[in-house]
Amino acid sequence: MTMTEPNAAAGGGFTAVDAPLMTEVHARARTILTQGPVPGDFAIAYEQAAGEAINWVNAELISSGKPPIAAGGHAALRQRVISRLAGLGAFAPLLADDSIEEITATGCDNVVVIRSDGEREKAAPVADSDEELIAAVQVLAAGAGLSDTERRFDRACPALNLQLPDGSRLHALRDVVDRPRVTIRRFRMVAATMAQLQALGMFSPDIADLLAAAVAARCNIIIAGPMASGKTTLLSALAGLLPPDESLGTIEDNYELGLHTDPRHEVVVAMQVREPNIEGVGGISASDLFRESLRMRLDRIIVGEVRGPEVAVMLDAMSNGSDGSLSTIHTSTSAGAFTKMKTYARKPPAGYEPEATAELIGGSLDLVVQLAKSRTQRWISSIREVCGSEGTMVVSNELYAPTGSDRSAQYSTPLTAARAERFAEHGWQPPNAPRTW
Predict the structure, then answer these.
(1) Burial letters for 168-207: b for 16+ Cβ neighbours within 10 Å, e otherwise?
(2) Any bridge partners for residue 190, and if so which?
(3) How far apart are CA 269 and CA 300, in angstroms?
(4) How far apart (Å, rounded) are the C-alpha atoms in residues 218 and 207?
(5) Fewest CB atoms less than 10 Å from the CB: which of 4, 51, 111, 214?
(6) Whether pLDDT at 435 is above 70
């Protein structure tokens, strides 16, 4: 590599221009990892291999009469080697920056980061070539070469989704795009509370009371919004209102909700879809997981983000009799969530007709909570009550509608009487009077 590395302390061998030395140490560390048993904790394995490799290379430098690696450069060199062993490479410094929320690389040298305040800026290249970038992602796909659960990233499997050690989500695409594309998203405040989100301006106190009553009343809620609008964060906050002793099941394409790592929940069975192997066997679908979940006597089943036919699984979870399910979907309006769900449900393997889907939505879903975002803010812009269906149409009331210059949600239409009574049992009272415009 010719990528610039951090300067070591003065007075030794490892400096910003010693990238070949870093490559040599990395290669030696990889060799060490393949020569003996690997500790169960990969972090320990990488640390040990990097330390041994530095000592070995140092000895080689001294024996050949060259200056050894400076003592002050050991820590920086070791950290870069560990990052490369883990497949993170030049992404590691970006992931170490807590202010960065998203990283995108279109090819090795067109790298953009989005910070938590919405600011975008260019970043240094993450590899010397597109081929090297693909190789780095392949290391991650193969579990850094040490895992038995390899995930491929090649011409036959040009798309990759996986979770990095810090919980970030990586998506990569190759061959079907002009240059390899890598996107890393970091989930902020996954374990946020409703009070924290209210303090950040995501919703008003009366909306907080409404949502708390809806969760307590075991309503089925879908959170809608554009990408990076805070859907997962709000879902986690709503789940945080559940009694801690309730047993939860989560069904996801990839682990993103993180409820199984949230200390607010005592029992969470986290389930993840599994793609079939190269022989076409071993796949586990969301429908398979839902059927298994019904045998577990779980209090609530939560289906993660709906991106396609798994909408049928979400509707099944919301109509299985236990109620209180949560899910998320990408839409720009609360009413648009119904159209999106009907479109998804028509795709195989579900193949539902729009009328059947509308009937399922009308009979199982209670609320659609719509999020909106700007570069610096995320907020609830609409809350829609589902009241039933008529033919292919879902009947709903927009309880809170976007209004004013900031398009935040304001009370607009009362709840239906039956649901208002249900919410009142859990302490909710409507605002004084509906607004008119």
Answers:
(1) bbbebbbeeeeebbbebbbbebbbbebeebeeeebbbebb
(2) none
(3) 10
(4) 17
(5) 4
(6) no
Question: What count of residues does the chain have?
Answer: 437
The single-letter code of the amino acid at 254 is N
Closest CA to 236 of 265, 216, 272: 265
Q: Does domain 194-424 have CATH number 3.90.1640.30?
A: no
**Is 150's pLDDT higher than 80?**
no
Distance CA 227, CA 250 (A): 21
Lowest mean pLDDT among 142-146, 154-158, 205-209, 239-243: 142-146
Tell me the C-alpha distance between 173 and 161, whole Å. 9
In the sheet that holds 181-185, the strands lie side by side as 120-123, 111-115, 100-106, 181-185, 169-173, 159-163
Q: Tell me the pLDDT tens digit for each residue of 57-82.
A: 989 889 988 888 877 778 878 887 88
Q: Which two tokens stand for residue 74?
A: 């050991």
Q: State residue 416 phi and psi, 5-degree precision.
A: -60, 155
* Model pLDDT, residue 228: 84
- CATH number 3.30.450.370 given to 94-185: yes
What residues form DSSP beta bridges with 376?
A: none
pLDDT digits (tens, 9 = 90+) for 161-203: 887 767 788 999 999 999 999 999 887 656 789 999 999 999 9
Delimit the domains of the chain by residue range: 19-85, 94-185, 194-424
Average pLDDT over residues 1-29: 54
Q: Nearest to residue 258, comparing CAs of 307, 189, 160, 314?
A: 189
Q: Supply the Cα-derived Rg of the chain in whole angstroms.
A: 25
DSSP 100-139: EEEEEEESSS-EEEEETTS-EEEE--SSSSHHHHHHHHHH
